[in-house]
Write a structure and sequence with these properties.
- There is one protein chain.
- It is built from 13 helices and 3 strands.
- It is mainly alpha-helical.
- It folds into 2 domains: 89 residues, DNA polymerase, domain 1; 163 residues, Orthogonal Bundle (hpI Integrase, Chain A), CATH 1.10.443.
- A 3-stranded antiparallel β-sheet has the order 1-2-3.
Length: 297
Amino acid sequence: MNKDRALDFFVEKLRDQDKSEATIKNYVADLRKFFAYMEEKEGAHGGTGVSATPKKAIREYKTYLEKSGLAASTVNRRLQSLRSYFNSLVEAGVTKTNPATEIKSKSIAKQNETKWLERHQVKAIFDAIDKRKQGEAKRALQRAIFLVLVNSALRVSELCELRLGDLDWNNGFITVQSGKGGKFRKVPFNSATQKAVKIWLKYRRLEGDYVFQTERSDKMTPRAVQHMTKVLSADLPFHFTVHQLRHTALKNLADKTGRIEIVATVAGHENVNTSKRYIEPSLKEIAEAMKDSEFDF
């Protein structure tokens, strides 16, 4: 597989993972810079970007980036792009190992910059849904989808895979299939979310087991949900993404409980450390907390 075909395959994998087009564009730009570096250094052999790339080449590329004067965060992002790229090729059987796996990122002091929405912004999203000139069925669909995302912390891919049998109305849980090794988890399915989904189900016309459907298909797609988000963002004074709704649900849970293990369970994080971002204060929260202690002489 040459580098162009490998890159096309990688882009499709990113879209399957619900990555935004802006994120995909950044990945591609990072990889093209790596390909250019390899081609200049080693010629056609280095330009394949597939199995011909040795670990040593990635290590030398990291050194090259560091000497270029780039910020540590930029160096790390480009290395992460390579890890993700080669991971996709390993999954496809194009290469057996990922040469970027053991190349460590640069150490930088991290502060929590995860973006989640404030309560008034979440309200504004649902106000925008209600104000749009559209049929009741479409309004019910959008309200149900966004409430499930912001209250139950699902990934958009998980939402699209939801089946009617996954909804436990009596006990108030949703069974979520993770897509990894047949694993699943249960997440809250509380009254406001249940009410919205029940209203949507009255309009649901097509046969099939999937909870959410489009007008033409018995199964909602991540791209369709992303399109809804884009359209709604155009009506709002702020931009938001589908994944921010999940972040918001998890941040809200962290603020309410203060327990990282609960957040990790609902999020489906295998490593509890992944959930720390929701427990740690955001930069905005830090700034707010320090307002009253500011010196002004």
